[in-house]
Amino acid sequence: MRILKLTIAFVFTVYVLKPCFAKAEKISAELIAAALSAQEQASEPGLLIRYSEFFVKGNVKLRAFSNVYVRTKDYMILKSDGFLHGETHIMTSLTTYDRKKDRYQTLITWNEKIKSETERISGEIGTGTGVFPDLDMPDPALLKVSDVLFLQDLISGKNNIKVDVSEKKEMIDGYPCYMLNATNLKGGRECQIWVDPSICFCPRQVIIKYPDSSFFLLKLKQYRKVEKEVWIPSTVERIAAFKKEDGSIKKTACLIELEEVTAGQQIIINDYIVKFPPGISIYDSNTGNVIRLPK
Questions:
Q1: pLDDT tens digits for range 166-179
Q2: In this structure, what are the phi and psi dihedrals at residue 226, rounded to the nearest 5 degrees?
Q3: Considering just the CA atoms, what is the radius of gyration of the chain in Å?
Q4: Buried b (16+ CB within 10 A) or exposed e, 104-131
Q5: pTM
Q6: In sequence order, what are the residues at sequence separation of 6 or more whose Cβ sits closer than 8 angstroms to the Cβ of residue 246?
Q7: Which residues, in sequence order, are CB contacts of 259 under 8 Å at separation 6+?
Q8: 20 to 30 A from 168, CA-CA: which of 56, 82, 109, 240?
């Protein structure tokens, strides 16, 4: 048994974690995807991250959400508490995504001072990751970069996506990075991702460009090595620019700050699994129908 365990450990180190340190190998999208996959495996059986999102306007920073993100082999979970003007708690949203079934369930509970009792609790179900936020998940191995694709899927070139990797490194915030350029995305979008080989090819910067000149800019900073080559950014800066009806561009800034992270440990997820209470309305995003549960 001891020999078997040593053999498994050797195979894992050489063939799974190897991409994180493969500085001499020819760079490719496959190599980067393998490194991110290895980081995901290294964080098992569970990853838990507590972080907050702040709206930033000039020197003013207002808390918008306090979040708990959980990833296990079977689930991805996001619990968010929303705040008004940085102080008043207005709602709690809990989303459970079943990775094997590719299905999500979301339960939203509003503060009773904000909504009446009949509207206060609602749910949503559907295929895919649902309301998981774009471009602010602090999990580099599974960073969501569009409304349909995660970073590993994007780099792996699924759905006929073309990904080119620069042969020369570019400096991003003082770190030499390779740039990945993804085209043929849904809706005519383009995506550039700068990954740093010194932190297992985690992204330092992500830009998504839209045909109407709108864009998302994401800067991941101050990475921390958490467990077994698992790297998590301590801060994330996000700038979103949207084209308005009058043709002008509106920009918003958001700052994401890491508060707590646990990796490589068993996580009890019972409290994070969505359980719909009787009598509430549930929106089915696949059919567009609203289901009323019996009381």
A1: 989 999 999 999 99
A2: -95, -50
A3: 20
A4: bbbbbbbeeeebeeeeebbbbbbeebbe
A5: 0.85
A6: none
A7: 50, 51, 52
A8: 240
